[in-house]
Amino acid sequence: MTNNVRSRNFAFTITGLSIALLIAVFLSPLASQHPDGLDRVAQDLKFEDKAAEDTPASKTPFAQVFDEYALKGVPENIATPLAGLVGTLAVFGLAWGIGKIAVRGSASTENEQLPYSDDSDSQIH
Fold this sequence. Notes:
Radius of gyration: 22 Å
Strand order of the largest sheet: 1-2
Number of domains: 1
Mean pLDDT: 81
Low-confidence stretches: none
Number of strands: 2
Number of helices: 4
């Protein structure tokens, strides 16, 4: 039964990741080129030139690779889908890692509290 649950979880994860990657790669180039949210307000109120150029975010390693929603040094028609691909995989990897740590932490807490281990499920009663 455990293998069936694991295979369903694996299939669910791969399906979700595949859908997210398809959206990031194929729909990101279709995003509006018009300024959004705060950029539009800054333009409307004429203060977009007052933005700080030397922000803390510009000093991160990611700032050397990414420019807005694209990769630096890559042709524009490829840069946005590639940035979507890299960003989606990075967020998935981060979420997966945090999930693994959280599950491992909660499993060890449960084992300390219970007088028996999780291995008892595999024994015949």
